[in-house]
UniProtKB/TrEMBL annotation:
It is a single-pass membrane protein; Single-pass type II membrane protein. It comes from Usitatibacter palustris. This is Tol-Pal system protein TolR. The keyword Membrane applies. InterPro entries: ExbD (IPR003400). The chain crosses the membrane at residues 12-32.
Amino acid sequence: MNFRRGREREDIEINLIPLIDILIVILIFLFLTTTYSRYAQLQINLPEASAAKAAEGPEILNVAVDAQGRYAINGSPTPFGNPQNFSQRLREAAGARKDPVIAISADAAATHQAVVNIMESARIAGYNHISFTTQTRQ
């Protein structure tokens, strides 16, 4: 007895949509959990020179600010006023020095704005080299 005589065999069909959905979820998971290695430092071998060191160091202009917001240029008290006036005072203190290094000595309790004021004044005066002084803990 052949009961399937009149029926044709149906083709097997694979539904790819659920497979694609699962692969997308796996890709998202892999993207989120992958760690990318970054180089914290560059390994550089610097060339050696046999020339003698320069006799003069960079010209330094010391600017200090205390916790009360008082400013001093090279140890001389200087009122701040505004960045344009203070930049003029920096130019006067630099004198004939072409591009001095501005060394900012800020009290630990000085406001952030006081330090930014000095940096803005140095930028207006055209001095691009700025350094901060620190002290070691005892």
